[in-house]
């Protein structure tokens, strides 16, 4: 079997704001080709972790390694060629067309005039096809549905052609069909293109079915493992107060306590 390539690893990481840590002593490692969900209750620190991993806010302690190099030793341009981020915040560039927005993903590779090469054009075309956006490539982003816009943002991350992709709640606002569609696309990107994909979500049941690994932020142990192992160890049972909902290990989903 081929040796697994370590893409992102975190050791003793504390995250939070100011001097107040939200989560302490995080430790996990992801390899090339793995899809991983970060789950946990509202306000536990999922988005904060994602933003810290993307260097959008400082870590409080510990170390983040990308391809076994300390993240802080990478230049901004090297970081942009290694890691792309899809956030939930509304995008400022909704007046661009679908194709123009996806082309922005090529910025780390263009020269200082921003000239697009033949290779850049091929990568943009491939992203349009992979995400079935070719027919709407000339539409303005403000004319798109939430689901279409979500696909465009992920296509832009694919055009950035980084080995690691981080996404904050990529399935919010989507119906069940489109939630599954987006998560399956992410799984395909990870498995077929050997990307390492880490995303935050409240869709624990879907994540259990589709992810290779999961990080459960519970504010204490914060276990990281493959979903079956996490179920066996009972980590999902302890995630929410039992009076309301209960995890059913047989179905891998939550049931309302009536
Ligand atoms: N800019 C900020 N300054 C200080 N505290 C903040 C800031 N942004 C978020 N927080 C706090 O940090 C905590 C974690 O927020 P975060 O958005 O990471 O949680 P989350 O797990 O993603 O939650 P949700 O599931 O609701 O999206 C919350 O208590 C939040 O109020």
SSE ordering = EEEHEEHEHHHEHEHEEHEE
Main β-sheet description: 6 strands, mixed
Low-pLDDT parts are none
Residue share in helix: 25-40%
Spatial extent as radius of gyration: 19 Å
Overall strand count: 12
Treating each run of at least 4 consecutive H or I residues as one helix, how many helices?
A: 8
Pfam family, one: ABC_tran
Domain ABC transporter: 8-244
Protein name: Iron-chelate-transporting ATPase
GO molecular function: ATP binding; ATP hydrolysis activity
Chain-wise SSE layout:
Layout: E1 6-17, E2 20-31, E3 35-40, H1 46-53, E4 61-66, E5 69-70, H2 76-82, E6 83-86, H3 98-103, H4 118-130, H5 146-159, E7 164-167, H6 176-193, E8 196-200, H7 204-210, E9 213-217, E10 224-225, H8 227-232, E11 245-248, E12 253-256
Parallel strand pairs: 3-8, 3-9, 6-7, 7-8
Antiparallel strand pairs: 1-2, 1-4, 4-5, 9-10, 11-12
Helix pairs in contact: 4-5
The structure holds adenosine-5'-triphosphate.
List keywords for this structure.
cell membrane; 8 helices; 4-stranded antiparallel β-sheet; alpha/beta; ABC_transporter-like_ATP-bd; ion transport; P-loop_NTPase; iron; 6-stranded mixed β-sheet; 258 residues; Rossmann fold; 26% strand; binds adenosine-5'-triphosphate
Write a brief structural summary.
Its main location: membrane. By secondary structure, the chain is α/β, with parallel strands linked by helices.
Report on this model:
It is a peripheral membrane protein. This is Iron-chelate-transporting ATPase. Its main location: membrane. One of its GO terms (cellular component) is plasma membrane. The chain is of the alpha/beta class and 258 residues long. It has a domain at 6-89 and 162-256: P-loop containing nucleotide triphosphate hydrolases (Rossmann fold), CATH 3.40.50. It is 31% helix and 26% strand. The chain is built from eight helices and twelve strands. It has helices at 46-53, 76-82, 98-103, 118-130, 146-159, 176-193, 204-210, 227-232; strands at residues 6-17, 20-31, 35-40, 61-66, 69-70, 83-86, 164-167, 196-200, 213-217, 224-225, 245-248, 253-256. The strands form three sheets. The protein has a six-stranded mixed β-sheet, sandwiched between helices. The N and C termini lie far apart (49 Å). Adenosine-5'-triphosphate binds at residues 17, 22, 40, 42-48. Adenosine-5'-triphosphate is lined by residues 17, 22, 40, 42-48.
